[in-house]
């Protein structure tokens, strides 16, 4: 059987198109629906990290982490994970006093519903889960309440990771929030 040149060209173009399509969309075309992952199309941003009191050993402080979800983020935000990184002292938290709201720590908006706040015993990572998930286009702030500020002055780093809502979420590390604690006014000049 002889195949004409135009038919061969048509079949070849179709085969190449199918191959490119499957290679370009592996998450949707090649994977079963149950194995698809939820992910952010556009990355959320860590806008700010701040504390209400920056003196060492201070009581009653709140550490605020402000995150912006772009309008075109795709999936909603299901969870935020915050992990203390290198630091001169380990900080303990009151998990049941964690707060979340729309806006920034200076311009508080509507309170967001927190389903749970947990802390991994091995890594110390604090996970804040939201129900319902936070929709794209929202700026939100999570406030963690330490039992007290650390004993030692210096820079304390907190890694912030966002997790989209949905099955098989692909988490996204946003970077570190930096909090600086001082022993007193003399520490500002004697470092």
Overall CATH architecture of the largest domain: Sandwich
Distance between the termini: 86 Å
Low-confidence stretches: 15-31, 186-191
Quaternary structure type: single chain
Q: Indicate the structural class.
A: mainly beta
Beta content: 35-45%
- Can you list the strand order of the major beta sheet? 1-2-8-4-5
| CATH-defined fold name of the largest domain | Immunoglobulin-like
Number of strand elements: 10
The DSSP helix count reads 2
Q: Could you state the order of secondary-structure elements as H and E?
A: HHEEEEEEEEEE
User: Largest sheet, if any?
Assistant: 5 strands, antiparallel
How would you describe the shape? Answer: globular
Could you describe the 3D structure shown?
The chain contains two helices and ten strands; from the N terminus they run H-H-E-E-E-E-E-E-E-E-E-E. A hairpin with a 7-residue loop joins strand 9 and strand 10. The radius of gyration is 23 Å and the shape is globular. The N and C termini lie far apart (86 Å). The protein has 191 residues and is mainly beta. It has two domains: 5-33, no CATH class; 45-188, Immunoglobulin-like, CATH 2.60.40.1290. The protein has a five-stranded antiparallel β-sheet with strand order 1-2-8-4-5, with no helix packed on it. Strands 6-7-3-9-10 form a five-stranded antiparallel β-sheet, with no helix packed on it. Helix content is 13%, strand content 42%. Mean pLDDT is 83; it is low at 15-31 and 186-191.
């Amino acid at each position: 059987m002889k195949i004409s040149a135009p038919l061969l060209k048509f079949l070849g173009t179709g085969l190449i198109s199918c191959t490119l399509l499957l290679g370009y969309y592996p998450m949707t075309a090649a994977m079963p629906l149950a194995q698809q992952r939820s992910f952010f199309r556009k990355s959320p941003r860590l806008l700010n990290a701040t504390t209400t009191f920056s003196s060492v050993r201070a009581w009653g402080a709140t550490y605020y982490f402000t995150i912006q979800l772009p309008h075109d983020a795709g999936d909603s935000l299901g969870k935020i994970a915050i992990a203390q990184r290198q630091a001169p002292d380990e900080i303990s938290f009151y998990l049941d006093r964690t707060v979340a709201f729309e806006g920034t720590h200076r311009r508080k908006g509507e309170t967001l519903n927190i389903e749970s706040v947990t802390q991994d015993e091995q890594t110390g990572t604090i996970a804040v889960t939201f129900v319902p998930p936070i929709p794209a286009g929202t700026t939100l702030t999570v406030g963690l309440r330490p039992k007290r500020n650390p004993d030692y002055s210096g820079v304390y780093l907190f890694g912030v990771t966002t997790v989209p809502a949905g099955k098989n979420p692909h988490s996204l590390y946003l970077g570190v929030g930096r909090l600086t604690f001082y022993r007193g006014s003399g520490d500002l000049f004697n470092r």
